[in-house]
């Protein structure tokens, strides 16, 4: 659709591009205070909640003197502001410190674990879009039909079903009863495959290893379905209501009156105008997927970043929690920015102010 | 746009169909899983029906990888694979297969038997221990095990100036257990001298006799690294373990699994690993782990929920093993609470508690009633103690005698009147598999006798923190034994500190009489003499109702029915070399 516009008015588009560029810079600049704020909040809150890493490390075996010794070793007895300055100074240089429990460099671990989460989240959102949008469109067009009632019932169930429970039920059905798909993990226990980027689907294709590709695909299906269930339902409902609103507009009646084919009316006229709210919802869901991934990763033993974060919170592993939240905040800001830019692409009426 | 969406739809649908459909020739791993599954089913039939089938099946070799490995489903991720710096069971399950010590716990008992030491002698005063080492044992990197290796390992654990030790400390690691079991590092440690008499003899000279010395040496952390491999690994020792054990380390995929491989040159020929590989998978969720077992993806698992025990028992494809009890769950009084200083009040709490239904209903049938702190399998256990008889009326009377005719719902804690809070743990532990339910049941029993508590909990880290600082007036906690020695159970809690002061983490318990008996037992060498002292201490603890001991649990492990040779040990440290997946 943008091609059409480009042919018509290049000077107008140029001005628009310039505006967009300025907008982009402005938005990127706001990222700095956001991340600083997040880091201060997380850092502060972590130290406000009682319990410390030394305590968790030692468990029932914690005596005051043991704890004091471990705290000293971990540098936890320095003043909080000093700890923060050390943290932020190192973070600016790309060093997020080392895990308290396992002594691993946090940055390196984030980069190693994040692809697993991204792979899962992207698959989930793909499932959600591919199923949710067509379902929403058809429901709107065939409003009141059995398909409409059925898909909206499923959508309602999808929104209300706890991911955790749904995950376990999927495993029970597809793995234990039907023996179709594996119960969890990214690859079979005996798989021997060294990854490059840790995006297994990508890596296996690059190395032309179809066996591993299909294996990892099989491992992805259930977690992606579980994680995608809620966004799928929300997207379907949102598409339906956006479409319904557009379909009741005068210009649609006009289009019908002109004798256009139903398909043309729906796709060319209605859908194009219904995109905006749908894109917004999809964008919001991407953010939500990261938090949903925590549960999905636990049920499916998925070695991603969500589960790692939760374990770290319970263990009071400060460097991991700080590093991962900062990282997730960065992703959130990035996704939001992309969504805002997408608006303009989808709907030329949107202005960059 | 439309084309893109259409392509995506097609691609996804296609992928789904391909992946879900029957195994393609391009995917041998898919076939493996199918084959494995039918084998499981056939095996069950074999056991039930004829032997002819069995021959046919054993004659058919396992077609693909996956059958040559024993796959264990663990509850979490190992912290580190250097046994000297770990304290947790998930890590030690892995290191147990890789490393060995001078002595070990025999089969399913606390009995200490030789491992890399052939035999040992102890001097009459209990201070000089001489170990004769096994000849012919080799580390996985090919170097010999000898006296030099033993000495270098001890130096790594205890010498602050040892460069490897110092580097670990600097990197934030701790040698927690060495300090706990052998008093401390360098001059503070119990060792006066550790020397090599000849290449196969090591002599330890202790500053004081230590009753649990052998049991301490049998613990999972006092096992030997190949000195050259340790030096090479340095502060990366967590990721490159090299010992003498039946399995050697292959790979640790973070958050996924650890893979080990049978060690061909293992010194103990009759006990060479039965399976080619061991894979320990990290499956954090208890239900998901059981589903993985039911689907045949793993062969064994820990962390079975009490509510799932019956389901496993009833499933012919699965079997259950109970680890002998080495855990005790208790209710502790804080002695800063004025009311709890009266033994009558404490006794009333104990008598008002009906343990039988708790053990029957809330432990999945794997628990037993605890009368005293040590579990029955330990030699310091006092058989003669008769437990309190549950009787609400007697409890009420005791409370009335103590000045609470209308029951008790408020306490004086640190001089302040506060409601009587009863704290239960937020997490499941071996001794309390479902603390919330157990806590609720205890509170309900007490309520009948006029003891009205309000149940409290908070996240685990904070819970432990409050307990450590002595801020919980009445709380649930427990213990899992480390080394099968009563000292590690009773003295750990009821010995006052070196200056005979009460410890806040033990609710300011302050009975010097009990502490003295326990300290005496710890410094005695002869087991019979020590046993008498521990039995005496248990009787004193019981008579004074220092704490209420609720239950010992026998943590359940679930297996596929075709797994044989797994030997459960009360310490939880189990060797996989005897395990066979048929």
Characterization of this structure:
Chain A is an all-alpha fold and 353 residues long. In chain A, 77% of the residues lie in helices and 0% in strands. Chain A has helices spanning 2-8, 10-48, 53-58, 64-74, 80-92, 106-141, 146-160, 163-177, 200-206, 210-247, 250-257, 262-299, 305-314, 318-346. In chain A, helix 10 (210-247) crosses helix 12. Chain A is globular. Chain B is an alpha+beta fold. In chain B, the strands form seven sheets. Chain B has a seven-stranded mixed beta sheet, sandwiched between helices. Chain B has a four-stranded antiparallel beta sheet with strand order 4-5-7-6, with helices on one face. Chains A and B meet through helix 3, helix 4, helix 6, helix 8 and helix 10 of A and helix 1, helix 2, helix 7, strand 10 and helix 10 of B.
Q: Tags for this entry?
A:
heterodimer; A: 353 residues; mainly alpha; 77% helix; globular; B: 582 residues; alpha+beta; seven-stranded mixed sheet; 19 helices; 19% strand; disordered N terminus
Strand order of the largest sheet of chain B: 8-9-10-1-11-21-12
Low-confidence runs of at least 5 consecutive residues of chain B: 1-66
Mean pLDDT of chain A: 82
Low-confidence regions of chain A:
1-6
Number of H/I helices of chain A: 14
Main sheet: strands, sense, barrel of chain B: 7 strands, mixed
Please work out how many helical segments of chain B DSSP would assign: 19
Please report the total strand number of chain B as a whole number.
23
- The assigned structural class of chain A equals mainly alpha
Total strand count of chain A, please? 0
- Give the DSSP E fraction of chain B (strand runs of 2 or more residues): 15-25%
Question: Globular, elongated, flat, extended or rod-shaped: what is the shape of chain A?
Answer: globular
Distance from first to last alpha carbon of chain A: 23 Å
Estimated helix fraction of chain A: over 70%
Coarse structural class of chain B: alpha+beta
């Amino acid at each position: 659709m943008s091609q059409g516009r480009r042919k018509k008015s290049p000077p107008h588009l140029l001005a628009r591009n310039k505006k967009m560029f300025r907008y982009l810079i402005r938005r990127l600049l706001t990222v700095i205070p956001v991340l600083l704020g997040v880091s201060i909040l997380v850092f502060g809150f972590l130290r406000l909640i009682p319990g410390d890493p030394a305590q968790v490390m030692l468990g029932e075996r914690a005596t005051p003197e043991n704890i004091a010794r471990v705290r000293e070793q971990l540098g936890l007895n320095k003043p909080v502001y000093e700890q923060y300055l050390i943290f932020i100074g190192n973070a600016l240089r790309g060093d997020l410190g080392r895990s308290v429990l396992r002594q691993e460099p946090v940055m390196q671990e984030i980069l190693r674990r994040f692809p697993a989460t991204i792979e899962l989240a992207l698959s989930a959102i793909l499932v959600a879009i591919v199923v949710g949008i067509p379902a929403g469109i058809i429901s709107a067009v065939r409003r009141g039909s059995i398909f409409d009632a059925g898909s909206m019932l499923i959508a309602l169930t999808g929104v209300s079903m706890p991911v955790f429970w749904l995950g376990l039920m999927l495993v029970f059905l597809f793995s234990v009863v039907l023996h179709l798909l594996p119960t969890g993990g990214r690859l079979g226990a005996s798989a021997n495959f060294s990854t490059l980027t840790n995006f297994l689907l990508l890596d296996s294709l690059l190395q032309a290893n179809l066996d591993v590709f299909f294996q990892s695909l099989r491992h992805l299906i259930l977690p992606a379905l579980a994680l995608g269930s809620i966004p799928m339902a929300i997207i379907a409902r949102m598409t339906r209501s956006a479409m319904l609103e557009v379909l009741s507009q005068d210009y649609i009646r006009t289009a019908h009156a002109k004798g256009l084919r139903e398909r043309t009316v729906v796709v060319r006229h209605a859908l194009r105008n219904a995109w905006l709210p749908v894109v917004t919802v999809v964008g919001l869901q991407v953010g939500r997927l990261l938090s949903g991934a925590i549960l999905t990763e636990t049920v499916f033993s998925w070695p991603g970043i969500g589960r790692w974060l939760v374990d770290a919170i319970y263990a009071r592993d400060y460097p991991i929690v700080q590093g991962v939240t900062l990282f997730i905040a960065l992703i959130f800001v990035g996704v939001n920015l992309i969504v805002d830019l997408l608006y303009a692409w989808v709907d030329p009426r949107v202005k960059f102010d | 746009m439309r084309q893109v969406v259409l392509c995506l739809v097609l691609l996804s649908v296609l992928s789904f169909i391909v992946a879900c459909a029957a195994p393609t020739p391009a995917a041998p791993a898919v076939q493996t899983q199918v084959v494995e599954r039918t084998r499981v089913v056939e095996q069950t039939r074999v056991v039930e029906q004829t032997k002819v089938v069995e021959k046919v099946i054993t004659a058919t070799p396992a077609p693909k990888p996956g059958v040559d490995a024993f796959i264990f489903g663990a509850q979490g991720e190992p912290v580190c694979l250097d046994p000297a710096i770990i304290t947790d069971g998930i890590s030690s399950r892995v290191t147990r297969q890789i490393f060995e010590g001078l002595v070990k716990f025999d089969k399913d008992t606390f009995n200490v038997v030789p491992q890399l030491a052939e035999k040992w002698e102890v001097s009459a005063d209990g201070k000089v221990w001489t170990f004769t080492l096994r000849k012919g044992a080799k580390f996985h990197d090919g170097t010999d095990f000898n006296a030099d290796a033993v000495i270098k390992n001890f130096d790594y654990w205890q010498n602050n100036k040892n460069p490897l030790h110092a580097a670990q400390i600097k990197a934030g690691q701790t040698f927690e257990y060495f300090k706990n079991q052998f008093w401390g590092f360098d001059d503070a440690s119990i060792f006066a001298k550790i020397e090599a008499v000849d290449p196969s003899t090591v002599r330890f000279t202790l500053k004081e006799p230590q009753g649990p010395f052998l049991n301490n040496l049998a613990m999972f952390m006092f096992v030997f690294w190949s000195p050259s491999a340790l030096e090479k690994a340095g502060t990366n020792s967590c990721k490159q373990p090299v010992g003498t054990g039946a399995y050697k380390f292959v790979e640790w995929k973070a958050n996924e699994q650890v893979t080990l491989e049978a060690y061909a040159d293992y010194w103990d020929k009759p006990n060479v690993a039965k399976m080619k590989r061991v894979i320990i998978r990290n499956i954090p969720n208890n239900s998901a782990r059981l589903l993985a077992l039911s689907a045949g993806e793993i062969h064994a698992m820990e962390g079975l929920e009490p509510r799932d025990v019956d389901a496993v028992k009833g499933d012919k494809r699965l079997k259950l093993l109970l680890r002998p009890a080495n855990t005790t769950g208790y209710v502790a009084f804080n002695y800063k609470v004025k009311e709890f200083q009266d033994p009558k009040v404490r006794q009333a709490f104990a008598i008002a508690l009906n343990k039988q239904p708790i053990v029957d209903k809330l432990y999945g049938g794997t628990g037993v009633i605890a009368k005293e702190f040590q579990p029955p399998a330990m030699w310091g256990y006092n058989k003669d103690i008769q437990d309190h008889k549950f009787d609400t009326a007697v409890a009420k009377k005791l409370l009335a005698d103590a000045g609470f005719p209308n029951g008790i719902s408020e306490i004086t804690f640190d001089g302040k009147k506060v409601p009587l809070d009863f704290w239960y743990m937020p997490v499941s532990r071996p001794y309390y598999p479902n603390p919330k339910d157990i806590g609720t049941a205890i509170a309900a029993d007490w309520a009948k006798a006029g003891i009205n508590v309000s149940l409290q909990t908070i996240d685990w880290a904070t819970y432990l923190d409050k307990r450590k600082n002595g801020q919980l007036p009445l709380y649930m906690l427990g213990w899992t034994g480390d080394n099968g020695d009563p000292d590690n159970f009773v003295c750990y809690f009821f010995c006052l500190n070196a200056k005979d002061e009460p410890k806040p983490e033990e609710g300011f318990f302050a009975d010097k009489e009990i502490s003295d008996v326990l300290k005496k037992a710890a410094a005695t060498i002869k087991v019979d003499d020590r046993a008498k002292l521990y039995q005496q201490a248990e009787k004193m603890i019981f008579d004074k109702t220092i704490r209420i001991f609720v239950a010992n649990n026998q943590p359940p492990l679930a297996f596929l029915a075709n797994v044989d040779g797994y030997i459960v040990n009360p310490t939880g440290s189990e060797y996989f070399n005897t395990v066979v997946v048929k």
